[in-house]
């Protein structure tokens, strides 16, 4: 029996994984095709992540990717999930996303986070000091002012983002802690919690965000998005093969030098391996019906208004299959 539609919107986050044997150009193009297929299948939105100095991902220039995807799609909302604000000038971020919103009205989202999006030393190469997280809330307020304040001229010394000022690009706060939930709540912003790789604080973050939320011009009521991993395949056995392929790609230190599947799984049963797997506690793995049941359970468990999926597969083709299977099970009645 086919599952009924998910009662909350279903969206995607794409770090543009570099699959085995794929070039950077092929990895980016497969991400654009994912956006086109997601639009056709009825997903709500797709966000690109910001990663730097990480060889397993091609997603670093989020605004460029969004612009390219927006030109290849028509309706699906596109955005950053997110821009790591300590890496950037708020004015430049406002100009980039103000330009995107001007070119593609009512389709652009801006998720912002406070991490680096890579190893700690990467921040130096990004030409930002290592203590920039201390000014995160100040930078967030500045960015919000650039996008949401009126375009009135405050004099010769005022700084405005053109395009940007007055575009009211929707802002979303990203985070993986209860403290981030409090910041989102006090700011009156939608909150996207990274439960797909930081599972432990999920329930407390959801509770705190809703209980402490204060309405804002952008958001009259709380909007809580929860991240979840998905590996869907035609059969449960195929899904297990795909998730192990994804795990090997994401954890080369654990899988390097292993000659067979048995040795690889033994490595993941080590203390380091168990810590790695714990990051992905919230994962729907299996055939379509099994993943559908899990997603319905997870939406209720998280108290989510929307789910944000990251697909874990071993190839772009397997990801296309997972995208279709989830849509067939969850996005139609």
The level of helicity is: 40-55%
What is the first-to-last residue Cα distance?
12 Å
* Count of individual beta strands: 9
Radius of gyration: 20 Å
Mean pLDDT: 90
Low-confidence stretches: none
Largest sheet: 8 strands, parallel, barrel
Broad structural category: alpha/beta
Number of helices: 13
Strand content: 15-25%
Which word captures the global form? globular
The secondary-structure element order is EHEHEHEHHEHEHEHHHHEHEH
* Biggest sheet strand line-up: 1-2-3-4-5-6-7-9
Summarize this entry quickly.
With 333 residues, the chain is α/β, with parallel strands linked by helices. The protein has helices at 24-41, 62-72, 90-103, 122-125, 136-148, 178-187, 202-212, 236-250, 252-255, 261-268, 271-278, 288-302, 316-330; strands at residues 10-14, 45-48, 77-84, 108-113, 171-175, 191-193, 224-232, 283-286, 306-311.
Task: Tell me the layout of helices and strands.
Elements: E1 10-14, H1 24-41, E2 45-48, H2 62-72, E3 77-84, H3 90-103, E4 108-113, H4 122-125, H5 136-148, E5 171-175, H6 178-187, E6 191-193, H7 202-212, E7 224-232, H8 236-250, H9 252-255, H10 261-268, H11 271-278, E8 283-286, H12 288-302, E9 306-311, H13 316-330
Helix pairs in contact: 1-2, 1-13, 3-5, 6-7, 12-13
